[in-house]
Amino acid sequence: MTPRVHRLHDESLANTSYLVEVDGGHAVTIDPPRDVDRHLALADRREVEIVATLDTHVHADYLSGARELAARGADAIVPSGSSPEWPHRTIGADQPLAIGDAVLRAIPTPGHTPEHLAYALEVAGRTEAVFTGGSLILGGAARTDLLGADHTDELARAQFRSVRGLATLPDQTALHPTHGAGSFCLASAVDVVNPTIGSERATNPLLQIDDEDAFVAALREGFGSFPTYYRHLQSLNEAGPALFSTLPDPPVLTPEEVATRVAGGAWLVDARPIHDWSIAHPADAISIEFRPAFASWLGWVVPFGAPVILLVADKHRGEAMRLARRIGYDDLAFLDGGLDAWRASGLPVASIDEVTPREALDRQHAGATLLDVRQHSELAALRIPGAAHLELGDIIAGAVPPAAELIAFCGHGERSASAASLLERRGFRVANLVGGTSAWIDNGLPVER
After folding, report:
1. Contact call for residues 176 and 5 (beta carbons, < 8 A)
2. How far is CA 35 from CA 25, 67, 200, 320, 324, in A?
3. What are the tens digits of pLDDT across the range 152-168?
4. What is the value of pTM for the model shown?
5. Are 381 and 418 in contact (CB under 8 A)?
6. Which of 15, 134, 306, 443 could cross-link with 357 by S-S, CB 3.0 to 4.6 Å?
7. Domain identity same for 34 and 153
């Protein structure tokens, strides 16, 4: 049979993993996340056995599911340049892996990481597809600065050679990257339906650049800041995270227990909608609204390894736990009874103002400072006149805003709520702009482009 490729997209981290179904009732996975139940359920529905799992590189943005699948009997295969401390075997440059009548051939593609491999799917000598991980991605290529400034240029030059090498594959080769539009691992990306090497060669701006220096400059221009938890996951993936299936359910704590843990260093995260948080929230709780991007912002705002206590609707508890543990935040608990129980216990409650765009403009004219917490790359497309700028990541790192009275804003309001909650803890008088720049534009207020 012709191998069948199933895409399993993770909206929370903008990544895609794959289950490749081959003859004989066998399948392999490529770049699975730590929670592999979707892959197992799909394999059950297709009546195939996952016999092997392959990672294209050591991931920084999520914990790999390779060890989880290995514990269930799959053959865990990693690039030869990596060195996991758990049972595995390595695969090197141009080494073939036979799966039924198909072959997965390892192609060295250093750049995003030094050990990076792509995997070409070959059937009867014909290249049907290629799994490119974080090398060639749709509309761009993955960033090369995750290992620090000392390696960025060298890896960017390796990325130049890697993506050009992949572009020599046959035009009809289906292109299956791991990272996608919205991932902080990317320098740039777009969404494309059914991409191929041919379509990418024709449309990817980086593939139009023949000069290595110009490629490096263009690639580096797309680098923005990235979540702080990235600094920890590569080493944890090598060491081997605890098996997801063995982690206990988080405890449900009384408000008094939560307060005691917070006093001891735990972080209380209010994951309710930002409007509810602004009306009333436990004093010093950090706003990170539960949404698809919840994991990325949790991993940016809360120091890696810190205990986390979530105030979140009961119906979202299971998914919030999954997203947090997908990036290694295993020390979790839930606040029992929500804000009502917190208030009933006599513990302190706070609130912040939500302001409309026109109210924000009036306050700006009266002396308040509009504080733009979006990333630097977003400023090129749109600015609000007179606004100060500090990325949310800078605020997390301790940067001090230029004024005491602030109105924080971002694109829609969620990131600025996180910023406002952090600044509130530091004693600033801060409000949140409802709807962010989107609402500002909808109200016809002035912008600079």
Report:
1. yes
2. 23, 11, 31, 13, 11
3. 999 999 999 999 999 99
4. 0.93
5. no
6. 443
7. yes
